[in-house]
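During the no-cost extension, the postdoctoral fellow (Dr. R.K.) reprocessed legacy sequence entries with the updated structure-token encoder. One reprocessed record is reproduced below for audit purposes.
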Amino acid sequence: MNFPLRALVAVACVLSLTAGVLTAMPDFAADNGLDFWNLSEHRTRLDAALRRQEQLEREGTVIVNRTAARAEVVEGVIAGRIGPEEAARTFEQLNRTDAETLERIRRCYPDGTDEVRAARQLVSHVRCFPHPGAKRVASEIASRLLGPAAN
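Re-encoded structure tokens follow.
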């Protein structure tokens, strides 16, 4: 037998042995990604994962935009460009754009209306904003929108 024929026989034996082992031990094949007979199932799972990733990216973009809008409102309030009432209304509108966000706000601030919750949320955001006058402005907003007992 010449060398190419021997190589062909050796490759055929190795492939036959591998196929036999993988058929006899399907869990081993699946665990190591060698179960080529399930390619359509793998493709279906991959397509589902890609659709989920796209959905999460879209949701993430919406969340980032909503967070950026809140930060812009807080900056405007601290700078005096936006009044507290308008800022609280904007926060309420932003909360209403997503049912999960609205539910989370209702859990965080269980008392009062959605308007009162948005005012409390505004005060919290202003208080946490990295600006030297943020705490003072937050106290003023709390007194104005929630009453003197809110401080």
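Helices lie at 3-24, 26-31, 39-79, 84-96, 99-108, 114-128, 134-146. Residues 58-150 form one domain. The remaining legacy entries will be reprocessed before the final report is submitted.
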